[in-house]
Amino acid sequence: MVNIKDIAKKAGISPATISRVINGKSNVSPEKRDLVLKLIEETGYVPNQAARNMVLRRSFTVGIVISDTFNMFQRQLFSFIERHLTSFGYHTMFFFVTFDGSSEDACLAKLKSVKPDGLIMIHEIRSPVFYEYLERSRLPFITATFSRPGFPSIHVDDEAAAFDAVNHLINLGHRKIRMISSEGFSCGLQRADGFFKALEQAGVMRNEKDNLVMVRHYTTEFGMYGMRELLLRSRDFSAVFAATDELAIGAMRALRDEGFRIPEDVSVVGFDDIEIADYLMPRLTSIRQPFPEIGEQAASSLHKQISGKYEGGLDLTAPYRLVIRESTALYSG
Amino acid sequence: MVNIKDIAKKAGISPATISRVINGKSNVSPEKRDLVLKLIEETGYVPNQAARNMVLRRSFTVGIVISDTFNMFQRQLFSFIERHLTSFGYHTMFFFVTFDGSSEDACLAKLKSVKPDGLIMIHEIRSPVFYEYLERSRLPFITATFSRPGFPSIHVDDEAAAFDAVNHLINLGHRKIRMISSEGFSCGLQRADGFFKALEQAGVMRNEKDNLVMVRHYTTEFGMYGMRELLLRSRDFSAVFAATDELAIGAMRALRDEGFRIPEDVSVVGFDDIEIADYLMPRLTSIRQPFPEIGEQAASSLHKQISGKYEGGLDLTAPYRLVIRESTALYSG
DNA sequence: ATGAAAGCGCTAACAT
DNA sequence: ATGTTAGCGCTTTCAT
């Protein structure tokens, strides 16, 4: 592979000047600049990333901490994040973490080894050791779609959004409402809070614990399990709020398998508004998270931090919106 | 950040010996080894990846060439590939390519800069320049879920699988069958070949071109467009074969919007058997691609190539299986 | 505006 | 078994 010395030799110039041209420094004569550019073009030379990384003590890589289950929601959000990071000149590398937390150590080790310039966390890590490292190493990072007090983050107001979603059901006349959520993320808890708040305000706060089932993962499979569990407890309800669309999809499956019609017998509301929500039968009513904005904000906020333009203490809030489709209908008790 | 010299100083040993311990070389005395290990543990030292990359002329990274649309099928396959690559000690980095091919140059530049140890291609690049570079640079690579004559690959027999899928419809009594596919990938063409072969064998090969619609991307959205186009041409059919599940989901949406019941009025078959196929209403009949095997084979074949254990000329074929669910039913003309 | 030289953190060849 | 040394490809002083 052709390197900077090869170019220097061909041009009869020192490597230092080649470097200057590559990095767009001003103090190079136009003639030499043109010559070098021509040579680079001809030879197809591309600077060796590893060498630059070493001397500049940067990796030009941003790590994405994400759960290994990597659902449709995360996939969509990632696409937007990636696009913006690329436009800022970063590469992107996944740091997978399993839900049970057993791999958080491995993730930390990979962090130290790869040394990304920054980190975007789409998955909520529990280990305090992890956050200690982030602080100690002063590694720029931002959490997306959830927040951790005192750290930069971009997310919607989960509790308020859940409140609105459940209120939509209440306004349709539903009173006996169930919820499926997960403990994995703090937003699962916040969405549950919004759920209870809405119930409370409507004066239908009965059997608090029986209304809610907590499952392990935000997947269609666990949505199905959760719904089955709720059905075992009681069939006396007319609406279900799922903490994510994936859970809603699984819940709808379980309801259908038991002969319930949606929305005639049971209304279903999801959360996230993933792409497929609009392709389901019936189309799923859901809370829209603005992926494009969240992705862009996460990337550009991180970029600012990395390039030292960080203003400090940002906890960005993205707007959400209830998208009403076919899976919710008037209560017809 | 603590480096190898720091460890050496603390231990009163030369950096070379530290390096030997880190890399598990045998010729180190047990006492020194233990001392070094202890120090590494204490200090939290992790070797600097960039420095190793430079001197070893390796990146310990495998590139994944994937389309920027990055659908559910690719997401699922990627998860398996990633898992295995990690177990072999590789990092993973995406090389996104847009469907229109405009970014193939950028992808090539990134390739030269990052210098991955190998490449797994889930997306079919057209540019011959790209393949020329692969050959010239002798970069190990393998194509997954499609094949390119003369190059290592792992994939199912798309034509045979499509043939079986369509035959399933024919055995159910369907004669007027439509197909939605895409030109983007060669497998879209091969699946169309299987479709026509099955029709031909059943003696229902009429209006060849009208039976098939080609759309731009393998997405739900384009599946919907494709189906609308078919409906515009004629409503006289009883079954649809979609080249991917995503297309099938979009097609089902379009059919439902026009009042068709599935499978009572129209049977639908997909291809890939993505996770969600079993959660749709109705559950989607589909050809199962064995993600776990394809992912494992792709990763381990590449690993063999990288470590010089490549036996040459492998064109691996993975088994497929028709999974019959609820979206296909007897023709009830 | 340009070149010479040092050095980033690591490994490997070569001594001993 | 261990240390010394050179060098991977690049950027960046520091001269000039």
Task: Please characterize this protein's 3D structure.
Two copies of one chain form a homodimer. With 333 residues, the first copy, chain A, is of the alpha/beta class. Chain A contains twelve helices and twelve strands. Chain A has a six-stranded parallel β-sheet, sandwiched between helices. A six-stranded mixed β-sheet of chain A has the order 7-6-8-9-10-12, sandwiched between helices. The N and C termini of chain A lie far apart (74 Å). The A-B interface holds A 1, 44, 46-51, 53-54, 59, 68, 70, 72, 75, 79, 82-83, 86, 91-94, 96, 109-110, 112-115, 137, 220, 224, 249-250, 252-253, 256, 275-276, 279-281 and B 1, 44, 46-51, 53-54, 59, 68, 70, 72, 75, 79, 82-83, 86, 91-94, 96, 109-110, 112-115, 137, 220, 224, 249-250, 252-253, 256, 275-276, 279-281. Chain A binds a DNA duplex (16 and 16 nucleotides) through α2 and α4.
Layout of SSEs?
The structure is a homodimer of 333-residue chains.
Chain A: H1 4-11, H2 15-22, H3 30-43, H4 49-56, E1 61-67, H5 72-87, E2 91-97, H6 104-114, E3 118-121, H7 128-136, E4 141-144, E5 153-155, H8 158-171, E6 177-182, H9 186-201, E7 212-215, H10 220-233, E8 239-242, H11 245-257, E9 267-272, E10 285-288, H12 291-306, E11 315-317, E12 321-323
Parallel strand pairs in A: 1-2, 1-3, 3-4, 4-5, 5-11, 6-7, 6-8, 8-9, 9-10
Antiparallel strand pairs in A: 10-12
Helix pairs in contact in A: 1-2, 1-3, 2-3, 5-12, 8-9, 10-11
Chain A binds a DNA duplex (16 and 16 nucleotides) through residues 3-5, 13-17, 19-20, 22-23, 27-29, 32, 47-48, 50-57.
